[in-house]
């Protein structure tokens, strides 16, 4: 009885967080903030559902699979978010208006300056990727 | 490391003696073996600081899950309420972690904890750029990461 309540609560909460993660992609203002929603809420959602699966079946092979699913999610979800965020930052995807960017970020990371930007002239390496990015400035 | 092997051996012995060769049996055996070894630990030299290490790994895991839940609730709140209260920013955080494994673990954990998402690391692994949901005070974010996740990871790995 208690176990069943716990299992249902766990699955329902998992579903709720998965829903929130999906809704976050629709609602939040820019790429990086959307990544916040998908990594955190998404990971917790799958973790909760796997927890319920582990306790519902309880045999060795299910437990082993459930634990490894959670482990690999914890390992890969942040890496994927990191790669998407990094690509977005390097490709000058427009960020939400209120975002404050650390002024040293571009130089320290070796990102070529924005095309048509105010500070520096374009280097040879930056011309290959940046000119196309200026036109699609919609959010 | 030999204490760890001894502990595993005790877990297998426990599972064998109680006749429950399942994961639960092995887990219970591990806990019982750990307690038994901890009680008799003054009798042998504990080279690697095994007990401290297990304690720190458990601390890391518990604190991490707590932070993951807090951050998910925060994100859910921000998604479900009509107004976005976020004041985001990209913040440079000095990184004290050494070596690929430590940096990987720290950045992964930062991505999963409240308000921060690791964005990029400089070539020399000294500075981490973090996208923060509430970037009013960059120094506070740096301090939180240094005294939180980074310290727990360093304690667990060394």
Query: What is the 3D form of chain B?
Result: elongated
Mean pLDDT of chain B: 80
Structural class of chain B: mainly alpha
Largest protein interface?
A-B, 48 and 40 residues
Terminal CA distance of chain A reads 49 Å
Order of secondary-structure elements of chain B: HHHEHEEH
Q: What does the largest sheet of chain B look like?
A: 3 strands, antiparallel
In the predicted model, the low-confidence regions of chain A spanning at least 5 consecutive residues are 116-139
Tell me about this structure:
The complex is a heterodimer of chains A (139) and B (158). By secondary structure, chain A is an all-alpha fold. Chain A has one domain (2-99). In chain A, 64% of the residues lie in helices and 1% in strands. Chain A has four helices and one strand; from the N terminus they run H-H-H-E-H. Chain A has helices at 2-27, 31-57, 60-90, 105-109, and one strand at residues 100-101. In chain A, helix 1 (2-27) runs antiparallel to helix 2 and helix 2 packs antiparallel against helix 3. By secondary structure, chain B is mostly helical. In chain B, a hairpin with a 5-residue loop joins strand 2 (116-121) and strand 3 (127-132). In chain B, strands 1-3-2 form a three-stranded antiparallel sheet. The chains are: A mainly alpha (139), B mainly alpha (158). Chain A binds chain B through residues 16-17, 20-21, 23-24, 27-30, 32-33, 35-37, 39-41, 43-44, 47, 58-60, 63-64, 74-75, 77-79, 81-82, 85-86, 89, 95-96, 98-102, 104-105, 108-110, and chain B through 22-24, 68-69, 71-72, 75-76, 78-80, 84, 86-92, 107-112, 114-115, 117-120, 122-123, 127, 129, 131, 133, 135, 138. Strand 1 of chain A pairs parallel with strand 1 of chain B, so a sheet runs across the interface.
């Amino acid at each position: 009885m208690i176990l069943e309540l716990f299992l249902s609560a766990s699955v329902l909460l998992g579903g709720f967080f998965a829903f929130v993660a999906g809704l976050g992609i629709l609602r939040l203002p820019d790429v990086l903030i959307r990544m916040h929603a998908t990594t955190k809420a998404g990971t917790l959602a799958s973790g909760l559902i796997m927890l319920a699966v582990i306790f519902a079946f309880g045999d060795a092979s299910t437990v082993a699979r459930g634990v490894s699913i959670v482990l690999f999610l914890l390992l890969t979800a942040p890496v994927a978010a990191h790669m998407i965020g990094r690509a977005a930052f390097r490709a000058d995807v427009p960020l939400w208006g209120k975002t404050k960017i650390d002024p040293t970020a571009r130089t320290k990371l070796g990102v070529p300056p924005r095309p048509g930007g105010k500070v520096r002239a374009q280097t040879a390496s930056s011309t290959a990727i940046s000119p196309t990015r200026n036109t699609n400035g919609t959010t | 490391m030999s204490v760890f092997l001894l502990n595993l051996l005790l877990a297998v012995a426990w599972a064998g003696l109680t006749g429950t060769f399942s994961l639960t049996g092995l887990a219970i055996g591990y806990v019982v073996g750990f307690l038994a070894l901890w009680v008799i630990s003054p009798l042998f030299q504990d080279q690697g600081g095994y007990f401290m290490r297990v304690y720190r790994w458990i601390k890391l895991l518990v604190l991490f899950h707590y932070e993951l839940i807090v951050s998910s609730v925060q994100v859910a709140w921000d998604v479900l309420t009509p107004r976005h209260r976020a004041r985001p920013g990209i913040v440079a955080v000095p990184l004290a972690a050494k070596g690929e494994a430590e940096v990987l673990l720290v950045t992964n954990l930062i991505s999963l904890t409240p308000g921060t998402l690791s964005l990029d690391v400089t070539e020399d692994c000294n500075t981490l750029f973090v996208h923060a949901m509430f970037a009013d005070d960059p120094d506070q974010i740096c301090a939180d990461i240094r005294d939180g996740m980074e310290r727990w990871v360093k304690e667990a790995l060394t």
